[in-house]
Amino acid sequence: MSTAFVYRATASPQEAAVWTRRQILMTDLRTIVGRAYPRVRGMAREKSWVFFEVLLPFLATSAFVFVYRALQAPPEYIGFVVLGGAMTAFWLNVIWMMAQQLWWEKSQGNLELYFAAPMNIMSVLFGMAFGGFIMASTRAAAVLVVATVVYQVAFAIDQWILLIAVFFLTLAALYGLGMVLASLFLMWGREAWHLTQLLVEPVYFVSGLNFPVARLGMLGSLAIAILPLAVGLDAMRQLAFADSAYPLGTPGPAVEALILVAMTVVFTLLARWTLKTLERRARQEGRLSVRWQ
Amino acid sequence: MSGFEATRPIPGTGSTGAGTGLAPPEWGGFDPARTRGRAGDVLRSFKTSTRLGWQMEANWTDPLLFFIYSVAKPVSSALILVFMLGVIGGGGNPEYRAFVVIGSALWSFVLSGISGLAWSVLDDRERYRMLKYVYVSPSDFLIVLLGRGVARVAVGGMGALITLGVGVAVLGVPFDIGAVNWPLFAIVMVLGLVSIIAIGVMLAAICLQTRQESWSYPEAVGGSLFLVSGAIFPILVLPSVVQAIGLLTPLSWWIEGVRQSLFPGGITSIGGTGSLFEMLTGQAAPDAGQIVLALLAAGTVTTLLSIAVFRASDRRAKDRGLLDQTTGS
């Protein structure tokens, strides 16, 4: 039988509750697939996202392209904006559908079910991240392809492998940060909703979404040290526009890739720790099932 | 005896009024007009929902954090543009800086106005699950939504004001209060806010039909209008077809009106050499009268359209049982 849940005769309920490693692994994998499923499947059920989350963000990105055109900026700056516009899909996904998701689930009454189910809650977070990544990837790819064609962005890539590695490391670090925020927002409650909105434009600014982050000086360096979007975008710009005169002041792409590796590890461990700590605190204070606060 | 006849004693008459057929009793009886609501009822609904909206916006935190939250977004948007100018070398021109700071400050109004109404629908339906109760209450649903939206417009207004203040005090935007055309400013602000709320009503109607993920839709719609409204660059750099769309949008005229009233003689976002506006009118830039007329016309069409869209969405939502539907992903 392929299922992990093979019937076995046990002497007591306590013995039945002792799971094998395989059962635990299979349950967690199923949890990841199960939590990712509504996000991936939902894309086919609600078609309006194609208009609202592909076409309209493309137009928003275009607005910044036209600012540079009005200023007669060098062509690579239009490429910087297009790349930044594509990456916003991931950031918006992280803050709207990762960071505040557990708090949202609490408000919906699902959170207590998550904690009561025989699975690791980190699997839920991984599932949310995986589903969100699929959702955001389609949107980012659409914006990138359409904008590249429409605005004739010319990429100059020498190190394809490093660029692909940096892209995936950026996403890993971003979703790791999303998992940390999900745990924190669970505790912050209603403030989380407002903080989500606070994390859009200010983060765009300090990440240098539409201009090289090196122009921000110390603030840019700080952003590179703590924000995956800032460091990932900077590394990708250096790699995707290798022939342009990129402003000095930030580390090279290989160093930035290492920063992203460190961020991924730190954020994932931090997410695990914060989730455990905050879950314990929430249980003690009886806040796991308290809604709308 | 009719079920609509009074059965309790009428003060001062000693009679119950029974036995007089379908004629109303002497004290007037039940007034069916009350079910339709009067101006006072509409005003009360509006005031209550405005107060509720404000409480929901502001009571989650202390005033300092609320202030930071309210201004961080528009100020950051302005800073992004100011840095973009600085990177390319246009930062030295104070007129450019004034142009982008005003555009991004006004845009916080637009985003607040649009999102306030749309999020009211999503909040009440998906989060608090109160939409069906609000809907069946005696208040007009549209009035309740408008009231809820006003609170967010107020937050957006505060953000816009602070952004302008930061622009003048920190970013070197030249501002002469004595040169401001106050009558034009007052007229375009009123007409512009009505247009923004009308767009918000349209988006609320759309969110009534869509699912929980629609939280980001107002931002997306705002972003697309950003392109055609001349908020951060003159629309003459756009293709003529897109310029034409911009000229049909009330927001373009509102932003132009506010710019021309606060900074008379500054860079125009509508006109300019080679613009569609110049080709159509032969003028380099619109004057105050043209701005008001165009804003009035575009705003009226948008408002009428928004009411029609809202009513159609309202009917469809009832038809398909969307008012108490909750979704998730």
If you had to describe this structure to a student in words, what would you say it looks like?
Chain A is mainly α. Chain A has 13 helices and no strands. Chain A is elongated. In chain B, helix 4 packs across helix 10. The radius of gyration of chain B is 25 Å and the shape is globular. Chain B has one domain. Chain B has twelve helices and no strands. Chains A and B meet through helix 2, helix 3, helix 4, helix 5 and helix 9 of A and helix 3 and helix 8 of B.
Helix and strand pattern of chain B:
HHHHHHHHHHHH
Oligomer: heterodimer
**Which structural category fits the helices and strands of chain A?**
mainly alpha
* Share in β-strands of chain A: under 5%
Greatest interface: A-B, 52 and 49 residues
Q: Quote the average pLDDT of chain B.
A: 84
Shape of chain A: elongated
Which descriptors would you attach to this protein?
heterodimer, A: 293 residues, mainly alpha, 13 helices, elongated, B: 329 residues, 12 helices, disordered N terminus
Secondary structure layout:
The complex is a heterodimer of chains A (293) and B (329).
Chain A: H1 13-16, H2 21-45, H3 48-70, H4 75-99, H5 101-108, H6 111-116, H7 121-150, H8 160-188, H9 190-198, H10 201-206, H11 218-226, H12 228-240, H13 253-285
Helix pairs in contact in A: 2-7, 3-4, 3-7, 4-7, 4-8, 4-12, 5-8, 7-8, 8-9, 8-12, 8-13, 11-12, 12-13
Chain B: H1 33-36, H2 39-58, H3 63-88, H4 94-127, H5 131-136, H6 141-169, H7 182-209, H8 217-228, H9 240-248, H10 250-262, H11 276-281, H12 288-320
